[in-house]
Amino acid sequence: MPRFIYSFILTIVMPFVPLKLLWRGFKQHEYRQHWAERVGFYNTIVQKPIIWLHCVSVGETRAAEPLIKALQVRYPQHQILLTHGTPTGRDASEALFGDSIQRVYLPYDLPCAVNNFLTHFQPKIGLIMETELWFNLIAACKQNQIPLLLLNARMSEKSFVGYQKLGKLTREGLQNLTAVAAQTITDATRLQHLGAQNISVAGNLKFDVKPPADIANKGAQLRTLLGENRTLFLAASTRAGEEALILKAVEGLDVLTIIVPRHPQRFDEVEALIKKAGFTYLRRSNLRDPAHKNVQVILGDSMGELFSYYAACDFTFIGGSLMPFGGQNLIEAATMGKPILIGEHTFNFADATEKAINAGAAIRVKDVKELRQQIQFLTENKDQCKVLQQAALSFSASATGATKRLMLLIESYLF
Question: What DSSP state is assigned to residue 16?
Fold first, then answer.
């Protein structure tokens, strides 16, 4: 596909975008805000040279935390600009960095919009996190001689097949990137087959993310509210359809189950599901006094507390993996030293998942029956939990160092 056809298709689709934003805004009002930014108009005042990072949503934003902090120390004369694609990503950067950075939405990938963005901010370098390939943006950076690096890059088999179908568009886009730092050799090989050049393997930034300094206290406080003498099972970052399977897995077991949906707009939907299934439950936002012993499920409807949930729980299941969503990040759980259960569908985090399993830090379950068996086993075998906890800590500690490698790469292009 030539790029002009890609741009033509985007132009045709654009009149329908406000309808999509309005629709999503009914469930999450933040989608009704900052529309001008999404088409390339900004009122943000630029006072320092800009280092620009694009972190589309929550996962990329959290993963970029150690890199952003290293950039702030190394380049205090520059302003860090974070661009996002979702309100939750924007909220995450607000919680992590406050006013120490600037944040806006990245515009839709129309030539006029991305040119407005680059003209307004005039970044000295662009850093795109993971797999955000916007072809007009890449071309505009190339034309304006702005170094553009794809960092912490990953390419699942599914994404590889999809980008391969775009042919010339993908190839030229990747070739126009200044450099690519992949998470693994497998990611680097797939990106190279698609046309990327100047590729290195730097590891996964997520392993460098440190738990908040006060997380032990917050975890202890949450544990007190949930029940110090109860077994706490955390189902983290669950996706649509998985909550029903998890409730089936824990039915009748002597555990307090904490379900934290991946997307906040699904909180009410999941609450209705828990209620319909007949479980006694509380929403985290209503948990101010210690939960009654009869409470069976906690709905994690709070934002920015995932580390606290990990700190409080005995063991965890990582969502997005019981059904073919590709899995979610298990590294934060490993960093917290928690035994990890993971489903079969982990193509988005294939390398980290396999390494965690091989290290004895995670256990793969193929279905609801096996999930139930492992929950019951870990509930009854505290010594095995301790073995898994130590393996998780050793696994996460062994894979750090991506931040230093990425900083060396950035320094070679940022003068």
Answer: G
